[in-house]
Specification:
Layout: E1 2-5, E2 19-22, H1 27-37, H2 41-45, E3 56-60, E4 63-64, E5 80-85
Parallel strand pairs: 1-5
Antiparallel strand pairs: 1-2, 3-4, 3-5
């Protein structure tokens, strides 16, 4: 099992859950399982081409997947995948 941490801005799409446990060995598999359980998250996470939206940051543990294998980054059993929306402003 992988624990996916849901940001407060997206918890309305997970029935208020701050954490969702899913099966998967990679970030892609974990997100696919998450979207199967909570379909409305798909549009918030992915663009029309199926790529992660620019404003969505994904971390396995404390490691940003952009500096690893992207969606193919392995997530260890019992690991945590965090979804963090980018914050803009000045």
């Amino acid at each position: 099992m992988i624990t996916v941490r849901i940001p407060s801005a997206m918890r309305g799409l997970t029935d208020g859950a701050a954490h969702v446990e899913v099966e998967g060995m990679t970030v892609r598999e974990a997100l696919d399982a998450l979207v199967v359980r909570h379909p409305a998250l798909g549009a918030r996470l992915f663009d029309d081409q199926g790529k992660v939206r620019r404003f969505v940051n994904l971390y396995v543990g404390e490691d940003d997947i952009r500096f690893s294998e992207g969606l193919d980054t392995a997530v260890p059993e019992g690991g945590t995948l965090s979804i963090l929306p980018a914050v803009a402003g000045g």
